[in-house]
C-alpha cells in the first residue's frame, strides 16, 4: 500500500507545529509572554479557531464537525501546564472577569469571527437547528 505524502502547512512564526503525518496541524502555545500575545493574535486573525485540551474527545468532535462542513479551523491544543495561562487570556479577550462562569472557561472553546461562539453544546445546537452554516459563511469560514 502506498503511503500518503504530507502537504505543506503554513503556520505563524509565533507557533510550533505538532502532530504526526495524517493529523490535523495544531498550534501549541508556550507559557511565556509571547503565548499571551499569540493567543490574542490567533483569535483575531482566524475566521474559526478551536481551543481545546490535547487529547480531549469533545474537542475532537467539534473539530470533526467543522471539517465535515468544509471549514478548515485553526486548532490550538493546550497542554495541561499552559491551561491556566491560556484560559486567563481567553477570558481577558472576551471581557469576562471569570465570575460569571465559576472562573472557568470550558474546552473546547470555539471562536468564530474573533468572538467567542461557545463550546460543544452551542456548536451542536446551532448545527442541528441549521444556523451554524450561515454563521460560518458570515464569518468568512465558508464560501459555498
Automatic annotation (TrEMBL):
The keyword Iron-sulfur does not apply. Gene3D superfamilies: Glutaredoxin. Keywords: Cytoplasm, Redox-active center. PROSITE patterns: GLUTAREDOXIN_2. It is found in: Cytoplasm. SUPFAM superfamilies: Thioredoxin-like (SSF52833). One of its GO terms (cellular component) is cytoplasm. It comes from the Eukaryota. It holds the Pfam family Glutaredoxin. Residues 48-116 form the Glutaredoxin domain. Belongs to the glutaredoxin family. CC-type subfamily. This is Glutaredoxin domain-containing protein. It comes from Ilex paraguariensis (yerba mate). The lineage of its organism: Eukaryota, Viridiplantae, Streptophyta, Embryophyta, Tracheophyta.
Amino acid at each position: 500500500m502506498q503511503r500518503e505524502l504530507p502537504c505543506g502547512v503554513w503556520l505563524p512564526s509565533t507557533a510550533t507545529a505538532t502532530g504526526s503525518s495524517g493529523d490535523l496541524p495544531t498550534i501549541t502555545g508556550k507559557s511565556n509572554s509571547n503565548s499571551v500575545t499569540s493567543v490574542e493574535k490567533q483569535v483575531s486573525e482566524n475566521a474559526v479557531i478551536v481551543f481545546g485540551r490535547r487529547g480531549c474527545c469533545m474537542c475532537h468532535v467539534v473539530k470533526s464537525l467543522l471539517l465535515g462542513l468544509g471549514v478548515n479551523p485553526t486548532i490550538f491544543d493546550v497542554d495541561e501546564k499552559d491551561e491556566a495561562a491560556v484560559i486567563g487570556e481567553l477570558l481577558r479577550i472576551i471581557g469576562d472577569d471569570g465570575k460569571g462562569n465559576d472562573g472557568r472557561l470550558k474546552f473546547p472553546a470555539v471562536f468564530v469571527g474573533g468572538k467567542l461562539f461557545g463550546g460543544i453544546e452551542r456548536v451542536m445546537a446551532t448545527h442541528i437547528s441549521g444556523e451554524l452554516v450561515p454563521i460560518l459563511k458570515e464569518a468568512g469560514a465558508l464560501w459555498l
